[in-house]
Design a protein that fits this description.
This protein is an alpha/beta fold. It has 6 helices and 11 strands. It starts with a strand and ends in a 7-residue tail after the last helix.
Length: about 200
């Protein structure tokens, strides 16, 4: 059975100046591209955001379970609590961010293949860099993560990963006629949006 999926969209988009998830890229908004690629890989999808996105009300909306906008780890904790309750027989759920429209179509399949037990975290990487928001997360770590976030300064995902058994799965860079494309390219600034527009043919 496919795991459930969570899209992390709780950021403030401060560098973009507007909500980046809804910005147009090619024939759809960025969030639309993420959903199109992610949906076939999971059994259900929830969106972690402070408020629901207009036009995406059909998806389960999950505001952070922890107050204070504590970053992506708060979204991961929210997913852990939600899926532990909604899918008690499932050990993991998959996460992706709302701003990476080129995410691999086989992301979840490859992460799941590397998952050795119910408490292993599996994280995607490319170009020798780990991308911790693209992961397969054990719901059993919810209590530990909640206690971790209580301490001020514990906001970095990599620091939390170092506390637990973590497997990294390497994904190749894509070769295009415009040059190399990292499938985990994320869009935070107008300049990055312009760069992503170079590769819109890969969104078809």
């Amino acid at each position: 059975m496919f795991p459930s999926g969570l899209i992390l969209a709780g950021g403030r988009s401060s560098r973009m100046g507007k909500d980046k998830a809804l910005l147009r890229l090619g024939q759809d908004c960025i969030l639309g591209h993420v959903l199109r690629r992610f949906t076939p890989q999971v059994s259900s999808i929830a969106i972690n955001a402070s408020i629901p996105f207009a036009g995406f009300e059909a998806y389960t909306h999950l505001p952070d379970a922890a107050a204070g906008q504590l970053g992506p780890l708060a979204g991961i904790l929210t997913g852990m609590r939600h899926y532990a309750d909604q899918r008690p027989n499932s050990s993991h759920f998959a996460s992706v961010p709302c701003d990476s429209p080129f995410l691999p179509f086989d992301l979840v399949l490859r992460l799941a293949a590397a998952c050795s037990d119910p408490e292993t975290i599996v994280i995607a990487m490319s170009l020798a860099r780990r991308h911790p928001v693209f992961g397969l997360w054990p719901v059993s770590l919810a209590d530990d993560l909640e206690h971790w976030l209580v301490k001020e300064g514990n906001r970095r995902i990599n620091a939390f990963l170092d506390r637990h058994r973590t497997v990294n799965v390497d994904f190749p860079v894509l070769g295009t006629r415009h040059g190399a494309l990292d499938p985990f390219l994320n869009i935070n600034t107008p300049e990055e949006l312009a760069h992503a527009e170079t590769f819109v043919e890969w969104l078809a």
